[in-house]
Amino acid sequence: MNNRADSRLSAELEAAHLLLERLGVTPEQLLTGARPRPSMPTFEEYIERVSQAVSDSTRRVYGTYWTKVCEVWGSRRLDEPTPLEIGQLTERIRKQALVRRNSRGGRTAAEHLISALRCVYRYAVADNLITEAANPAVRVAKPRRLASTRRGLHDDQLAVILEVAGTTGNDPNLDTLILRLHIETACRRGGALALHRSDLDPDQCLIRLHEKGETVRWQPVSPALMTALLQHGEERGADSLDDQVLRYRSGKPITRRRYDYIWARLGRHLPWVAVQQISTHWLRHTTLTWVERNFGYAVARAYAGHNSGRDAGTTSTYVRADVQEVAEALAALTGEAHPLVRGPKAGLGTCAGPLPLPER
């Protein structure tokens, strides 16, 4: 008899918990008399508010997927979809993903959709609209990432890419400068586009890179590249400290489309570039691979701007490289002395000759 009563009580308690969860009320609020959570907004209403709260880069990545969510669930409340429904929507988006030559079965689209929903629900939890336990997006697993097909380029491959970039197109000087910047610094595309006149330190040959995750770091560059960046900006109208450095001949700042143009052109002249889908990020792989092989893992991490130590274990706390060591690696890569380097390591010239710069 007691067992039956206990079972019935357990079932009733579970039913009460489910009811409170649907109402958005916690047992603690019943005891303390706290006010219930605000009324639950729809996806269309709340995504618009979240979009205004995130950074431009986050909005650029997630915006497309938030639009898709609003098309399907725009009038639904945030607390309505279940993990199963999110999984079904993810599969639908994955199948609808554009098929490109470098497509990987829509995995990126599926991952971005789940990340976009998790972003929305993180704000909903912070706004006390739902509890962390009631967050359906965290209970949907992201697709497992496949190994990257990118790799470092050989010296002869890099040389022919630079040669074609500097002898073809409507602005070879600009394109050569862009590629030289990425080879020397291993920066991401966003870092190069965010480079302003105020980010150049000619005395110490350092540039300030603003990259993903709102990270900011000072990266050594060769004196030749610093001179080229200053001359380029001066000739093309980057007069103010707030002006973007990389510009067209018209004086208009370049955008991501310039990179698309560069690699599409290189692919027409060099079929293997198009077949392997080589992009600017391959240059990052090339430089960092060279630095790691010649100067070790710690210097390569610093060169890449990966000094958080989050994914490298406790040891990285004690073997962190500094900007001078990065400058030593750069001096060896370019064969040029650097102001931050004192001693014989400057200008080792272990790479295949000096890197080319735009002709004046």
Automatic annotation (TrEMBL):
The record's listing under Gene3D superfamilies reads: 1.10.150.130, Intergrase catalytic core
Tell me which domain of life the UniProt entry assigns to the organism this sequence originates from: Bacteria
Organism of origin: Actinoplanes auranticolor
GO BP, sorted A to Z: DNA integration; DNA recombination
Q: Residue limits of the Core-binding (CB) domain? A: 41-125
Report what the protein is called. Site-specific recombinase XerD
Molecular function (GO) terms listed? DNA binding
Domain (Tyr recombinase) ranges? 148-331
Per UniProt, which keywords does this protein have?
Answer: DNA recombination, DNA-binding
Q: Which PROSITE patterns match?
A: CB, TYR_RECOMBINASE
